[in-house]
Amino acid sequence: MILEYKGINVFYTDQGQGTAIILLHGFLENHKMWHAFLPELTKKNRVICIDLLGHGKTDCLGYIHSMEEMAEMVHAVLKHLRLRKYYMLGHSMGGYIALAYAEKYTKTLKGVCLLNSTYKADDAERKQLRVRANKMIQTNFNNMVRMSFANLFSEKSKVLYKTAFDAALKEALKTPLQGYIACQEGMRLRPNRQKLFSSLTCKKLLIAGKNDPVVDAENLVEETKNTQIKTVVLSEGHMSHIENYKMCLEEIMHFIE
């Protein structure tokens, strides 16, 4: 379905009935990343998947897609659907957006799940990497996307889940150049939301990958000890929805019960 927002088209899917669950994909992904989860999730729930700015079938909106602007766009969709209370799950960048959303619309949330994501801001090194990537992408889009996407999977995972890896890469390569640059810039500028996540009174879940090259699982486990945040560490890397599909789905099902 399409919603017009600030003069652009925003694409979303809306399936099932029951408790509303909002799924936000990561960088270089789109609503299709959730397809394998939908048969189970939609049995007793209403599931909304949204293509974020500059991804999938949603247009770009300017040259910086801040996490706050993305959250506002998500809110426009949920307001249009007249939803009042829901669970929100975000993979990687989707998690950053879920936290920006929680900052402004706290009372709407039954729970927030960060999947292979973090409440931390980028450190100086990561910020520099994003600046460099935005320069390089302008002359070598395909190779850069292939490289950055391949880095999210271990060598073992690329072989074990070749079909899913190839399909995800195919979708990643459809991301427009402007969408790539605008989101990198938005992620680079995002603030630390550790205090915010800790203070949320709704249910909170962190699903991390032991061998995630992007998110330090060990550090998150240490920081969330003795808090109301449930942290689950799965065996593989950044793409738990592919690499740890069954366990990841189980944890999500428990979370929304």
UniProtKB/TrEMBL annotation:
Residue ranges occupied by any AB hydrolase-1 domain in the UniProt entry: 20-244
Molecular function in Gene Ontology: hydrolase activity
Keywords associated with the record: Hydrolase
SUPFAM superfamilies per record: alpha/beta-Hydrolases (SSF53474)
Protein name: Alpha/beta fold hydrolase
